Hints:
By secondary structure, this protein is an alpha/beta fold. The chain has helices spanning 14-24, 43-54, 59-72, 84-90, 92-102, 132-141, 165-173, 189-198, 206-212, 216-231; strands at 3-9, 28-32, 78-82, 108-109, 122-126, 142-149, 180-183, 201-204. It is built from ten helices and eight strands. The radius of gyration is 16 Å and the shape is globular.
Amino acid sequence: MKTLAIYLMCGPETPVLAGAAVEGGADLVELGFPFSDPLADGPVIRRAAERALAQGMRTGACLEILAATRERLPETPLVPMTYSSLLEAHGWDRFAADAQAAGATSMIVADLPAGERPELRRVQLVAPTSTDERLALAAAQSDGWLYLVTLTGTTGVRSELSPALAGLVERARARTELPLYAGFGISTPEHARAAAELADGIVVGSRAVEVAENGPEALRDYVSSLRVALDA
């Protein structure tokens, strides 16, 4: 069975939304910690981050949301997605300990390259521009699975799946036995099905964040449409 990961921005409503996503068929939930200058994020997630910051979602508050989500979802992998500046401010070791205590399964630090702070257990990201050498290093250090960024550029809803994914999957498979989850630019059931033919799972962010604005029922139905496509 293919893995379906759903990204949600931390906010007061996130535990309920995460529950709805899992009801719809999500296997894993990424929790975005908002950052004022996010490199990888497109307009949808940037706006969500601005809203979250306006709601007071600093690192401590996000860790509380993580803990509340873990209480609601005792079995679901929960992965905070954050940036190195936030960890620098909080304290690297302290953040790792606090996240684990709050129920994190692992973490993603979007702007921390493989090879830097190897002691920090995290899911690594690779992109079509990653050299074979970088890909091998990221795979060797990744925690549980490898995140394949399907395109160069920021997150966001795209009209079609990136043609670069097939080559990236092929290169990654030659270097690791870890599960490969593809993300960035996946928003429709058609994208989901096409990506899952190549990778072991998919990560859906921008579109899930957009749909979540309409409430938990809308999110559950959207995630369910992706689940059906993956299981077809």
